Structure formats: C-alpha cells, structure tokens
C-alpha cells in the first residue's frame, strides 16, 4: 500500500475513534451493567466490566492523584465529560516501576473480580525506533547522527520530529520530519568536555493530528566507556505533577532535573527533599523527566515518562486463554491504546 494511502487510512481510523468517543454516553453503573450475570453471555459480561473500568472514575474519584488505595477500580478522569478520557495519575500508578504503584491484589480487590485474571496494557499510538548511524569526532566536539523510524500498526507514518539530547549539565535540540517511508535523520554536536552518559529524547507527532504524539528515549555513551541500565541508581515516580526521586544508594548526588515535551523544556528545582514540581504545560504531548547525577564518581542519566507509559500490568496468562478488549483513549489530550485482558469466567 502506498505511504499516502497508509497515512489516509490511519487518519480515518482515528477520526472514527474520535467520533465514537464523542457519541458515547457516560451514564450507567457497574451494577446496572453486570448485576444480572445469568442474562449475559461471557463476552457481554466481560465487556461490561471493561467498559466500567474505562468509563468510571472508581472510588474515591481521586484515588490516582491522592495516592490512596481505591475501593472501586476505574481509570476515567473524575471531572471529564469525554468518554474514554483517562486520568494521568491512575494510569501512572499501574506501572510497577513507580514507588506509588498498586499491587495486583489491590486492583483485583477494587475491581471486585473473584475468579477472573486481569491484565492491562497502555501503549503509544506511534512506534519510534532509534539507531545511532554515525559518530564523527573532532578536536573539540563529536557529531552524532541518528536514524529515526516512525510507524503505526498499518505502516510507516509521516511525522514531525522534535528531539533533545541531555549530556549532564548541557541540553541540545533538533527538529526534522520523517520521509514518506517514515524515516528521518537528526544530528547533534556535543562538546568533548561533556563526556559521560547521554540521552536522546525523540517526540514524533503525526502530521495530520497533533493529538497523536509519542516519545522514545535512547541512551548512549559520549566519549565514555561505562553505561548502566536505566533505574540502576534511582526510582523515579511521577504523580500529581510531582516527581519523586528516591536514591537506591547512599552516595547519590543529583545535579540536574529536566522536563521535556514536544514544544517545551525546563530545568526543575526541588520543591522539597526529593520532590520536584512537574510543569503542567498546555500541550498535547507526554512529558519525559530526566535526572542527572553521580553515585560516588560514577555519572548517570535516568528518566521516566509522565504519564508513565508504555507498560503491561497484571496476569501473564501463561498457558491460559484470554479475552481482549482494546480502546483508543485520551490521556492529557493525547491518544493512547488501552488493552484490557481477562481470563475465562469460571462457572
């Protein structure tokens, strides 16, 4: 299929999804939908539970931002008038990497699921692949060339690229677009004096709809041999527009904390010990938060996204059947794909 046709098909698919979001109603309760199990077949029963999860705010309605355990499990924004608009903090608390994450037992209990396995995933609409194509050193700086590929399930996507590089106390920015086959190049020159771990952050935005903006983070070493995996030194937990930074070692020192979105970037200052205020930009984009520092003499650069996606939470359904319900949802004015998996209903 020609790239123009793929882009048109992709755009039409999202338009249909948006229309369905606008036409749906938020009325109804879980009891009204699933209260009479004998009148429902398995598919209808599980679909009603999935619909409740994505259209209800649960109880208490602010269980996400207040960091409390929910009594009823629902992911919707409590103040939203748009169906399938999910709460950024409720979604973030499903990512097990955060210190505020809910346990599987807590969610099963709040969902009132007794004998049904549950799995939830949230993914970005666009998939971004990054490859380091070339390194060109000189006397005072080193130039890096990256190849960025953007695609959707239906094929490559024409997108604008907003890119940042973090190298310790320095940041750099570059802009480009992908070609008709969804591929673009970006170049950065980094001073040789900034040797150490570095991070490339890529935001890709579909040219036909700014609400389809996804991100990717790519770690690389700038004139530095040692590179540690992300989350080696810190646990980063964004919640209620506050980033909590927990050190895993006693000798960790934080030197810089940054926030990036498609259009904005900012240096963050500590609101209190280990807490940093996340900017609430009016922006249809995820936010990537980057923390730079040292563990003794070892430099590091670690990051987390807000909302804290993509992720998979819950049962792995190993050697078991599953029932899958997928939705195009809105989180912070941006589109994502939510998938809810249930095990079989036990009679």
Structure overview:
It is a single chain. The protein has helices spanning 3-23, 30-34, 42-55, 88-92, 104-111, and strands spanning 85-86, 118-124, 127-137, 141-152, 155-156, 159-167, 170-177, 183-191, 196-206, 213-222, 234-239, 242-247, 252-260, 265-267, 270-272, 275-277, 287-295, 298-306, 311-314, 323-331, 334-342. With 347 residues, it is α+β, with helices and mostly antiparallel strands. The protein has a domain at 3-123 and 309-342. It has a five-stranded mixed β-sheet. The longest helix is centred in the first third of the chain and has 21 residues, at 3-23. The chain is globular and about 70 Å long.
SSE blueprint:
Layout: H1 3-23, H2 30-34, H3 42-55, E1 85-86, H4 88-92, H5 104-111, E2 118-124, E3 127-137, E4 141-152, E5 155-156, E6 159-167, E7 170-177, E8 183-191, E9 196-206, E10 213-222, E11 234-239, E12 242-247, E13 252-260, E14 265-267, E15 270-272, E16 275-277, E17 287-295, E18 298-306, E19 311-314, E20 323-331, E21 334-342
Parallel strand pairs: 1-20
Antiparallel strand pairs: 2-19, 2-21, 3-4, 4-5, 4-8, 6-7, 6-9, 9-10, 11-12, 12-16, 13-14, 13-17, 15-16, 17-18, 20-21
Summary tags:
5 helices, 347 residues, four-stranded antiparallel β-sheet, alpha+beta
Summarize it:
The protein is an alpha+beta fold and 347 residues long. Helices cover 15% and strands 44% of the residues. A five-stranded mixed β-sheet has the order 1-20-21-2-19. Strands 3, 4, 5 and 8 form a four-stranded antiparallel β-sheet that branches. The chain has a four-stranded antiparallel β-sheet with strand order 7-6-9-10, with no helix packed on it.
């Amino acid at each position: 299929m020609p790239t123009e046709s793929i882009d048109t098909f992709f755009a039409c698919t999202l338009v249909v999804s948006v229309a369905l979001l606008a036409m749906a109603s938020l009325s109804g309760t879980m009891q009204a939908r699933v209260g009479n199990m004998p009148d429902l077949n398995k598919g209808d029963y599980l679909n009603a539970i999935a619909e409740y999860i994505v259209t209800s705010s649960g109880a208490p309605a602010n269980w996400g931002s207040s960091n409390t355990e929910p009594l009823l499990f629902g992911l919707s924004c409590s103040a939203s008038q748009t169906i399938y608009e999910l709460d950024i903090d409720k979604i973030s608390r499903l990512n097990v990497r955060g210190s505020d994450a809910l346990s599987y037992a807590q969610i099963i209990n709040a969902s009132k699921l007794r004998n049904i396995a549950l799995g939830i995933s949230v993914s970005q609409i666009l998939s971004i692949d990054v490859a380091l194509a070339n390194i060109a050193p000189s006397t005072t700086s080193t130039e890096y060339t990256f190849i960025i590929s953007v695609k959707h399930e239906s094929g490559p996507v024409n997108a604008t690229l907003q890119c940042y590089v973090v190298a310790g106390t320095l940041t750099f920015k570059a802009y480009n677009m992908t070609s008709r086959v969804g591929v673009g190049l970006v170049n950065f020159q980094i001073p040789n004096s900034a040797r150490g771990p570095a991070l490339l952050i890529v935001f890709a935005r579909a040219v036909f709809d700014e609400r389809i903006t996804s991100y990717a983070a790519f770690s690389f070493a700038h004139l530095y041999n040692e590179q540690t995996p992300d989350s080696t030194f810190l646990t980063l937990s964004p919640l209620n527009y506050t980033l909590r930074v927990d050190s895993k070692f006693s000798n960790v020192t934080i030197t810089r904390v940054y926030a990036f979105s498609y259009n904005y970037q900012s240096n963050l200052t500590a609101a209190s010990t280990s807490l940093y205020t996340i900017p609430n930009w009016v922006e249809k984009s995820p936010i990537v938060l980057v923390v730079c520092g040292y563990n003794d003499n070892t430099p590091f650069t670690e990051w987390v996204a807000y909302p804290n996606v993509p992720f998979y939470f819950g049962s792995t359904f190993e050697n078991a059947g599953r029932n899958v319900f997928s939705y195009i949802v809105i989180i912070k004015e941006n589109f994502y794909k939510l998938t809810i998996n249930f095990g079989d209903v036990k009679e």
